[in-house]
Amino acid sequence: MKKITLFLCILTVAFVNAQDDTTSDKLTFAKGSQFINANLSLNISNSDLEAQTQTQESKNFGFTINSSYAYAISDNLFLGLGLGYANSTRENELNGALDNEAKTNSFEIFPYVRYYKGIGKKLAFFVQGETRYTNSNTEVNNADIANTDTFFFGIRPGLTLLLNKNLALETSIGALGYTTSTSENESNASETSFNNFNLSLNSSNLFFGLSYYF
């Protein structure tokens, strides 16, 4: 809920800035422009299950940090490369005592193409097409359980709000694309494959960050 509220605030500020001079030129990034950025996504949730003889509680916390560099090969069109790290922890409690704990660490690399469309002097909408590879390792109670390779092919829409000549506030809003993954379970030597095409608006695909243009 906090993330949705923050996004609505950013969108409101961006809309106001876009309307400050309807006769002015729209925001344009010239050929040869460059930027570096860093963004963050948080995922926090709790769930409870109460029965007659026991109470179960699950606590989830996760974050993803991405950074990237991009270069404009023509006006408003950038080619970029990014790296990312993600960590998630799930604690399951039974009758108030820790029952088990699962941790997942992930490393990502994602080449991308991004196109901007100016909608105000300081505001631009963008669409980013990307290929993202993620390698994840999952532990349960400090024992290695699974290693997963995931590929994502798709697009991410977003907004960029220029705060000054160089610094911009950025948000990407969800993802649309195809995901394929293969997971090897080390505890029983099994392998599981997953394929999915969907539109995702969950918190893991909502990023907020800063970009520096030069």
From TrEMBL:
Protein name: Outer membrane beta-barrel protein
Spans through the membrane: none
Signal peptide limits: 1-18
Species, as recorded: Kordia aestuariivivens
Domain Outer membrane protein beta-barrel: start-end pairs: 20-202
Entry annotated with the keyword Signal: yes
Keyword Lipid metabolism: no
Record keywords, A-Z: Signal
